[in-house]
């Protein structure tokens, strides 16, 4: 057991910096993949971070992305516009006021099917609201407003 501890102590001065350097490179290129695909598809990237925790240093590029290096270099993240946090959970309040989100929902999902997933992505809602309630909260037209007048059954 003492030999293992002695070996670890002997390895640390050169091995730990080498490990952190390699893992930082791996994280950088991994996150760069997320960044490039997002930019390719026109998604705004708010933050590109190598490391977690407090920022050591950083800068903003011409597209408004904050590039930063943080204190714990064992991971990283890319925060997209509309994310509530670095875990990419959607910011429902921001999405409800985004005209582009409204336009896409009306275009591809006019009846509101599946909208409760947008409103409660983590399943934290106790009861599922009606489709009209979701549409009204998001400022969209309700099902009744979308149906032709001669088809209405109400």
Overall description:
The structure is a single chain. The protein is built from 6 helices and 2 strands, in the order H-E-E-H-H-H-H-H. The protein is of the alpha+beta class. Strand 1 and strand 2 (66-80) form a beta hairpin. The protein is elongated, with a radius of gyration of 23 Å. The model is unreliable at 114-126 (pLDDT under 50).
Keywords:
154 residues; 2 domains; two-stranded antiparallel sheet; 6 helices; single chain; alpha+beta
Concise synopsis of the structure shown:
This protein is α+β, with helices and mostly antiparallel strands and 154 residues long. Helices cover 45% and strands 20% of the residues.
Helix share, percent: 40-55%
Whole-number mean pLDDT? 76
Low confidence ranges = 114-126
Count of strand segments:
2
Q: Walk across the major sheet and give the strand order.
A: 1-2
Beta-strand residue percentage: 15-25%
- CA-to-CA gap between the ends? 80 Å
Structural class by secondary-structure content: alpha+beta
What can be said about the biggest beta sheet?
Answer: 2 strands, antiparallel
- Annotation field: number of helices: 6
Written as H for each helix and E for each strand, in order along the chain, the element string is HEEHHHHH
Overall shape: elongated
Would you spell out the secondary-structure blueprint of this structure?
Layout: H1 2-40, E1 45-60, E2 66-80, H2 92-96, H3 99-108, H4 115-119, H5 131-137, H6 143-146
Antiparallel strand pairs: 1-2
């Amino acid at each position: 057991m003492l030999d293992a501890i002695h070996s670890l102590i002997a390895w640390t001065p050169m091995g730990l910096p080498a490990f952190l350097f390699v893992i930082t490179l791996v994280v950088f290129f991994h996150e760069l993949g997320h960044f490039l695909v997002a930019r390719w598809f026109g998604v705004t990237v708010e933050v590109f971070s190598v490391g977690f925790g407090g920022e050591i240093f950083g800068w903003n590029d011409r597209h408004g992305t904050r590039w930063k290096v943080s204190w714990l270099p064992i991971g990283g993240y890319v925060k997209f516009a509309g994310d509530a946090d670095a875990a990419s959970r959607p910011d429902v309040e921001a999405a409800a006021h985004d005209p582009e989100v409204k336009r896409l929902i009306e275009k591809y999902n006019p009846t509101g099917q599946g909208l409760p997933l947008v409103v409660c992505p983590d399943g934290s809602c106790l009861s599922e609201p009606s489709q009209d309630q979701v549409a009204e909260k998001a400022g969209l037209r309700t099902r009744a407003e979308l149906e032709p007048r001669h088809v209405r059954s109400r």
